[in-house]
């Protein structure tokens, strides 16, 4: 600091000397120009000027000493203040104005922080009080089917939801299709309403927000719309769609193989149309969840979709050869003969694609009077008794032999409890509706078709497929009977008569 004061003093003296030299130069110039000033006057003037300069230098010295004292005093005071405010002061570079500026800025910042904290504190208190008012209430702007449930507690909410539910039940679902209208009240289409869960979910959505998000939701009063939790009753919906489908569906026609007098022909299939059941279900569900449900009925324009054949005509053209056949005889002109013919007709032209399984019960059933069957003798526990459908087992037994001749093994087969007279023991196949079925799979690489003829007491069943289906093997079933037991085998022979296949099929025990 002493260096700064000394420097200030030297600069002042230098300025004074410069001023004196300039004045002397002016005097010299006046003399050279022949000024009328005498040497004596010149000396007097110089003396006066020097006296004035000395007086000025002395005054400057006194002034500098005073400034030094003031700077030292102010520095000491500001140093104390700087220490209090955490300001670093370097004595070699200190600037009084910088210290004052930093001190003033720090004080201003402190005031701003204080004001900010006060605002935050007051805001937090206000936010907390506002949110706490809705601790057990529904936030403003909460709607169910556009009905306001804001500011309500649980019991009030459930009461209002129940009223909304009753209003909804009277609304109708109107389904338009093929110029026909089907009306059904919503109460006859839904199973239940879950109002408690709806309330719990609304509260959960509110509680999962942080306090400031809750405040924004409350203050903004922005609408949030909910719908009742309504479940469609599956059985009621199925009854409705079945009723509609029965009226509007047009079944497709599958292509067909026609066999007549050992000749084969093919008939193309045709597209149909059917009710789009999935779209109908989704449309009803969407309508129930519409915000306008309380204002208007649900109107649905149901859709039809194309129903195309599952089998192509090209697939059927692979069937070009009779693979196997078997014939039995029956008494015609009676109830039993009628049942044989009825069952045979039901499996005529039946098509099986590769890997598809045949079920005799499904193909001819149900065995009841309304399906064309009559009462005739049937075997039950080894005895003949009168029963509905007597004679259908002759058709299954005839088909069983045809199937074995085609080299196909049954997947399910049972013999009668009493031996029959239309096929050898071990080569019969019985049916007991709901208990015993007769089944087999198409194990060929090609489709096959069953062809039947039941005329004048003669039943013939044929299996047709591709000429390469048997791969050159001829199959023949054989039963070996010992007492009431028959063991059935299937043998296969090549074109030269060599046995190339042998398999035990089943053991049949009779009473």
Any overview of this molecule?
The strands form nine sheets. Strands 13-21-20-14 form a four-stranded antiparallel sheet. It has a three-stranded mixed sheet with strand order 2-1-6, with no helix packed on it. The protein has three domains: 2-85; 142-282, no CATH class; 318-509, no CATH class. Helix content is 42%, strand content 25%. It has helices at 2-32, 39-85, 96-132, 154-169, 195-207, 211-220, 234-248, 277-288, 313-316, 335-347, 360-364, 392-405, and strands at residues 142-144, 147-148, 172-177, 180-185, 190-193, 224-226, 230-232, 256-260, 263-267, 272-275, 298-301, 304-307, 321-329, 350-352, 357-359, 375-380, 383-388, 410-412, 439-441, 448-455, 458-465, 474-482, 485-493, 499-509. By secondary structure, it is an alpha+beta fold. The model is unreliable at 1-13, 30-50, 52-57 and 67-82 (pLDDT under 50). It is elongated.
Task: Please give a quick description of this structure.
The chain is α+β, with helices and mostly antiparallel strands. It has 3 domains: 84 residues; 141 residues, no CATH class; 192 residues, no CATH class. It is built from 12 helices and 24 strands.
């Amino acid at each position: 600091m002493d260096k700064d004061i000394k420097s200030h003093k030297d600069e002042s003296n230098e300025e004074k000397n410069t001023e004196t030299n300039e004045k002397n130069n002016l005097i010299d110039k006046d003399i050279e120009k022949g000024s009328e000033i005498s040497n004596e006057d010149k000396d007097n003037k110089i003396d006066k000027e020097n006296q004035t300069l000395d007086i000025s230098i002395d005054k400057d010295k006194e002034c500098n000493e005073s400034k030094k004292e003031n700077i030292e005093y102010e520095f000491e005071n500001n140093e104390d203040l700087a220490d209090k405010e955490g300001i670093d002061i370097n004595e070699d570079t200190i600037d009084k104005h910088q210290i004052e500026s930093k001190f003033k800025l720090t004080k201003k910042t402190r005031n701003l922080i204080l004001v900010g904290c006060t605002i935050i504190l007051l805001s937090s208190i206000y936010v907390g009080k506002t949110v706490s008012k809705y601790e057990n209430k529904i936030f403003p702007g909460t709607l169910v089917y556009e009905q306001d449930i804001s500011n309500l507690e649980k019991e009030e909410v459930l009461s209002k939801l129940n009223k909304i539910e009753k209003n909804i039940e009277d609304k109708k679902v109107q389904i338009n299709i093929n110029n026909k209208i089907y009306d059904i009240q919503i109460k006859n289409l839904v199973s239940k309403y879950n109002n408690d869960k709806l309330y719990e979910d609304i509260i959960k959505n509110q509680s999962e927000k942080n306090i400031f998000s809750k405040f924004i939701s409350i203050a903004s009063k922005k609408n949030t719309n909910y719908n009742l939790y309504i479940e469609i009753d599956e059985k009621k919906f199925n009854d409705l769609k079945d009723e509609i489908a029965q009226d509007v569906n047009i079944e497709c026609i599958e292509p067909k193989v026609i066999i007549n007098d050992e000749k084969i022909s093919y008939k193309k299939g045709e597209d149909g149309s059917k009710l789009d059941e999935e779209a109908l279900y989704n449309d009803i569900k969407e309508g129930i969840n519409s915000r306008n449900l309380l204002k208007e009925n649900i109107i649905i324009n149901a859709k039809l979709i194309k129903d195309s054949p599952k089998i192509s005509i090209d697939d059927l053209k692979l069937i070009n050869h009779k693979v196997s056949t078997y014939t039995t005889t029956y008494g015609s002109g009676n109830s039993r003969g009628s049942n044989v013919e009825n069952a045979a007709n039901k499996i005529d032209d039946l098509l099986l694609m590769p890997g598809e399984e045949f079920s005799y019960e499904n193909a001819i059933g149900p065995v009841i009077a309304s399906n064309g069957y009559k009462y005739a003798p049937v075997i039950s526990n080894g005895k003949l008794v009168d029963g509905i459908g007597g004679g259908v087992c002759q058709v299954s037994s005839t088909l069983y032999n045809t199937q074995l001749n085609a080299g196909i093994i049954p997947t399910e087969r049972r013999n009668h409890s009493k031996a029959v007279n239309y096929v050898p023991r071990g080569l019969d196949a019985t049916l007991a509706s709901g208990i015993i079925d007769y089944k087999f799979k198409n194990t060929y690489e090609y489709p096959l078709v069953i062809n039947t003829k039941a005329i004048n007491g003669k039943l013939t069943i044929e299996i047709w497929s591709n000429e390469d289906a048997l791969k050159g093997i001829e199959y023949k079933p054989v039963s070996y009977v010992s007492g009431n037991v028959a063991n059935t085998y299937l043998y296969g022979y090549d074109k030269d008569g060599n046995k190339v296949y042998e398999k035990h099929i089943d053991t049949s025990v009779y009473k």
